[in-house]
Amino acid sequence: MANGQADKRRAILDAAIRVFARQGFHSARVSDVASEAGVAYGLVYHYFDSKDQMLNELFSERWSLLLDASEKVQEREGSVREKLGGVAGFIIESYRHEPDLMKVIIVEVTRAANSFGRTHLAEIRQAYELIEKIVADAQAAGEFRKDVSPAFASMLFYGAIEQLLTGWIFEVVPGADEDFEHAKELVVETICGGLEPRPAAERVAG
Fold this sequence. Notes:
Elements: H1 3-23, H2 30-37, H3 41-47, H4 51-75, H5 80-97, H6 99-110, H7 115-119, H8 121-140, H9 150-169, H10 177-195, H11 200-205
């Protein structure tokens, strides 16, 4: 694809992000995207078959970046806290810098019990499996207790982050710069604090 065409296609996708975030995917029309992008209605269909294709591409683009970042974190040397912090930090920074895009992904795909969520189950599952691997490695090294399955720990990890993002999206939790930084620490501390072995004395007392 020539640079001019690629730029036009990108402009339409960027316009779709703004429209979907502002109006909701199901209320948005292709004509709304065309108007936002400043292009003719018919030109949108030159690049995309439907608004569904736009949403699918927006999700896959961002999710592939998350998977790449998670794989690099999982492979490098470092503590389990550093690794989980790296993944949590990537997601939170993604929201911090591209809130509209992350709102669309959370509201319209990962939280939606519809065809979009089902379409991307394999990609979503990959992200969960990378967290499972980090947890399993920590269990094998004796850093995490073994009575909590890696799959369950992964669900808790992503569940905590998703709730944070949802809180920011609907403005029910503070979203200043310091709140983003504190959130990264709290997610890791909460997950790791629950998975790290307790001293024997605490287990007896409990």
